[in-house]
């Protein structure tokens, strides 16, 4: 599924200078002497966008009729900033820096002008961005499809320790990276009713229309000679955004209703769905972008003069989690109702085109939609889903299990409720309607087969496969850690950027004192840079010589930031009790957002911030312990934290993290991992060796046994004095004397519920952290382990992941 790279020569330095100055003058109405840093950012971005657009045509995006085109459907694409990455990929970084310097401008100041694209939240979106990069780098024709959110998720700020959400207005004045394609606008329907046509067929008559306007972002390979695109849909409601009659009658709000409704649909990522309106909006968002994308795919297919019956031969749909699962009935609707196919032909094409990536084992994260809600918004799709389920249960399921009602109820797409409603299990629909289903780490994929979908695995041998996640080395090593990249270039050459297995050449250098010193020096400079950022953002001074202990990921109970917090409190008590002991200085760094409606997660953030305030101002510690929670965690912030991290916290409850990619990024940059045998930690441990990772905690089987016998967190609280003292300090107001009960909810949850068994793993975690401290006090040993982590993680490149997808999922 790959092409030979184009031989087109990219822009030379002189042409680059001419084009850059042309954009300054023509688009921005300024000159090099008068241009601000923001002007230079826009001009540079436009120049690189033009290079990519030219190369997009050379890449033959739509022309090759034999190539199977990958269509990656995802609610999130966490792209971060694009300029620095693009300059590096196109080999123009030094050229741009030199040119700007000639005008007295620093490239670093220009790069800081860019806002992160607010198109995602966490691992799901960042994985999608890495995969788009690697699809281009593997020369696989692909389009990423998503939503062009106006505000994204939210900008996180802290007020007196509380998380507050603010709109993230990232594209208020447009983005130079986006190209609008109004001529390729598509129309879709919503709501309405079903009626019989003159041939006796059911026909959907929507009562509301949406228009999807595509905005394209180019995605170049390293070297820029192959380019794919990310197509993001912006919603409009109705042909006319404003009703002038109502406006002229003074009914201003009503006159602008279409404008407001359209902006709402592509406005905010993951709207809070605790209200009926929120549930409606989430489903409409999912349908909106998948329906627009499928119409776009069919338009391209027809434009190429290809028969509809060959659609699956030329396009592979990858459903990134269940958010785009509505694509399955929508594709059936398009093929039957608009293209005139019979059921069997449409179903064969749908099953051949669709592929589903499962990202979670958590029951609450497996999407379910009320049939009454879906039927009200998408009445035809409910009919199709009912027919898919009927054919499946009376065909394959009946042949496999006969009248075994227990299994039939489990594999059915519909879950019957006591109130008479039904829930549509989107995961079941995705498995039944897809050609391949993949997990994202070896452990996770095994649990998908054994625990989540064992019946489907028995019914469809070979359908459920594993593709372990990966990260792009261009962004997550070359771009974010230039000091380490230069060190690697001098010692093992430059090919590692496109062949990460080249890092194995570092293994003998782990025995070289000179190389270890150079590696440590790079890390120290990165830590100094992060220390300056912490000073600026948190008003806390930290010591770059301390161990930087980092936990950066979405705030969720199963990721167990609360376990980290209990260890911090125990360290604090230990340092106060034994002030003359040889304590390893530590800086704990957190970065995470909690969903607006996730009350306990927000209480954990509050607890971390309140405890940090006390610890950071306790002069008795003599700067040996600091705790900082950097606000508004995002890609550009991660790019500064990851190269400075000494210890990577991957401490989720075994069996609950699908894979993780932060563990890969941190390890690739030389951080040592402390973690459970969960997700990709298992494969990371196998790669780096038991001596170069700090594994602790109960295994998947031990967690299951503990759940089965009845987990009692209070037992651990009572029997462990260190743990009891830490929790008591949350209960008694030690960290917020003016409001003694403020942190009680976190403590009470740990003592009486502790759904993800933090207390059961606490002592093992504390012992592992003691080993961390002992090892860090032996610099030669620490840096040897750090180098071996970088050397042995080449297999966690997203280039390898995409090669696996091409072979195991999209291939013949």
Automatic annotation (TrEMBL):
One GO molecular-function entry: glycogen phosphorylase activity
The enzyme's E.C. designation: 2.4.1.1
Modified residues (N6-(pyridoxal phosphate)lysine): 665
An example Gene Ontology CC term for this record: cytoplasm
CC cofactor: pyridoxal 5'-phosphate
SUPFAM superfamilies: UDP-Glycosyltransferase/glycogen phosphorylase
Any single GO BP term: glycogen catabolic process
Catalytic EC class: transferase
Alphabetically ordered keywords of this record: Carbohydrate metabolism, Glycogen metabolism, Glycosyltransferase, Pyridoxal phosphate, Transferase
Listed Gene3D superfamilies: Glycogen Phosphorylase B
Pfam families per the UniProt record, alphabetical: Phosphorylase
Swiss-Prot/TrEMBL catalytic activity: [(1->4)-alpha-D-glucosyl](n) + phosphate = [(1->4)-alpha-D-glucosyl](n-1) + alpha-D-glucose 1-phosphate
Matches recorded under InterPro entries: Glycg_phsphrylas, Glyco_trans_35, Pyridoxal_P_attach_site
Job of this protein: Allosteric enzyme that catalyzes the rate-limiting step in glycogen catabolism, the phosphorolytic cleavage of glycogen to produce glucose-1-phosphate, and plays a central role in maintaining cellular and organismal glucose homeostasis.
Family that this chain belongs to: Belongs to the glycogen phosphorylase family.
Protein name per Swiss-Prot or TrEMBL: Alpha-1,4 glucan phosphorylase
Source organism per UniProt: Endozoicomonas elysicola
């Amino acid at each position: 599924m790959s092409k030979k790279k184009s031989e087109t020569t990219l822009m030379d330095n002189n042409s680059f200078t001419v084009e850059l100055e042309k954009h300054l003058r023509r688009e921005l109405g300024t000159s090099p002497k008068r241009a601000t840093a923001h002007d230079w950012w826009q001009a540079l971005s436009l120049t690189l966008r033009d290079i990519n657009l030219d190369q997009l045509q050379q890449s033959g995006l739509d022309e090759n009729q034999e190539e199977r085109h990958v269509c990656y459907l995802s609610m999130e694409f966490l792209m971060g900033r694009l300029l620095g990455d693009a300059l590096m990929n196109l080999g123009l970084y030094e050229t741009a820096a030199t040119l700007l310097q000639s005008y007295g401008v620093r490239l670093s100041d220009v790069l800081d002008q860019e806002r992160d694209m607010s198109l995602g939240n966490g691992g799901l979106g960042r994985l999608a961005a890495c995969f788009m990069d690697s699809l281009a780098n593997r020369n696989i024709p692909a389009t990423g499809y998503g939503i062009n959110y106006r505000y994204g998720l939210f900008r996180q700020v802290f007020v007196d320790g509380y998380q507050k959400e603010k709109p993230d207005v990232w594209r208020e004045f447009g983005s130079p990276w986006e190209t609008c394609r109004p001529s390729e606008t598509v129309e879709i329907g919503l709501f309405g009713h079903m009626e019989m046509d003159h041939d006796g067929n059911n026909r959907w008559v929507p009562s509301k229309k949406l228009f999807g306007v595509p905005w394209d972002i180019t995605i170049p390979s390293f070297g820029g000679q192959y380019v794919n695109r990310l197509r993001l849909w912006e919603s409009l409601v109705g042909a006319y955004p404003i009703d002038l009659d109502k406006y002229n009658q003074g009914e201003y709000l009503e006159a602008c209703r279409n404008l407001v409704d359209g902006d709402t649909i592509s406005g905010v990522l993951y709207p809070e769905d605790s209200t009926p309106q929120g549930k409606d909006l989430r489903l409409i968002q999912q349908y909106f972008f998948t329906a627009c994308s499928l119409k776009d795919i069919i338009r391209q297919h027809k434009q190429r003069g290809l028969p509809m019956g060959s659609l699956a031969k030329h396009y592979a749909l990858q459903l990134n989690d269940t958010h785009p699962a509505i694509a399955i009935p929508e594709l059936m609707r398009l093929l039957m109702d608009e293209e005139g196919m019979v059921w069997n032909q449409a179903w064969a094409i749908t099953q051949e085109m669709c592929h589903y990536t499962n990202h979670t084992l958590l029951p609450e994260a497996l999407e379910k939609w009320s049939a009454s809600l879906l039927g009200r918004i998408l009445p035809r799709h409910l009919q199709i889903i009912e027919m898919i389920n009927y054919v499946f249960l009376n065909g394959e399921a009946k042949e496999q299990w006969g009248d075994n009602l227990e299994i039939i109820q489990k594999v059915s797409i519909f879950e019957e409720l006591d109130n008479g409603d039904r829930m549509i299990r989107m995961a079941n629909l995705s498995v039944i309607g897809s050609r391949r289903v993949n997990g994202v780490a070896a452990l996770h994929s095994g649990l998908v087969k054994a625990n989540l979908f064992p019946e489907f695995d028995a019914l469809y041998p070979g359908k459920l496969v594993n593709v372990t996640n990966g990260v792009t080395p261009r962004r997550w090593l070359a771009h974010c850690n230039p000091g380490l990249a230069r060190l690697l270039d001098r010692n093992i050459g430059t090919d590692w950027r496109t062949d990460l297995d080249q890092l194995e050449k570092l293994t003998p250098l782990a025995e070289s004192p000179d190389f270890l010193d150079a590696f440590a020096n790079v890390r120290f400079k990165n830590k100094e840079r992060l220390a300056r950022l912490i000073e600026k953002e948190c008003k806390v001074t930290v010591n770059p010589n301390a161990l930087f202990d980092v936990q950066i990921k979405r705030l969720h109970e199963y990721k167990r930031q609360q376990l980290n917090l209990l260890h911090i409190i125990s360290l604090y008590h230990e340092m106060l009790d034994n002030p003359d002991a040889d304590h390893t200085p530590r800086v704990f760094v957190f970065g995470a957002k909690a969903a607006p409606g996730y009350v306990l997660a927000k209480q954990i953030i509050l607890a971390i911030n309140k405890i940090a305030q006390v610890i950071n101002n306790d002069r008795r510690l003599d700067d040996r312990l600091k705790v900082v929670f950097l606000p508004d965690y995002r890609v550009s912030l991660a790019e500064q934290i990851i190269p400075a991290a000494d210890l990577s916290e991957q401490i989720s409850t075994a069996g609950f993290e699908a894979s993780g990619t932060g563990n890969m990024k941190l390890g690739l940059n030389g951080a040592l991992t402390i973690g459970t045998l969960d997700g990709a930690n298992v494969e990371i441990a196998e790669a780096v060796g038991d001596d170069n990772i700090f594994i602790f905690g109960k295994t998947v089987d031990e967690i299951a046994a503990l759940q089965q016998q009845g987990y009692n967190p209070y037992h651990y609280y009572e029997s462990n004095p260190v743990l009891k003292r830490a929790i008591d300090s949350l209960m008694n107001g030690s960290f917020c004397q003016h409001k003694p009960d403020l942190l009680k909810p976190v403590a009470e949850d740990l003592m009486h519920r502790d759904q993800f068994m933090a207390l059961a793993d606490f002592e093992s975690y504390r012992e592992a952290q003691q080993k961390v401290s002992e090892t860090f006090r032996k610099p030669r040993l620490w840096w040897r382990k750090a180098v071996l982590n970088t050397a042995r993680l080449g297999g966690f490149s997203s280039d390898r992941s995409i090669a696996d997808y091409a072979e195991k999922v999209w291939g013949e």
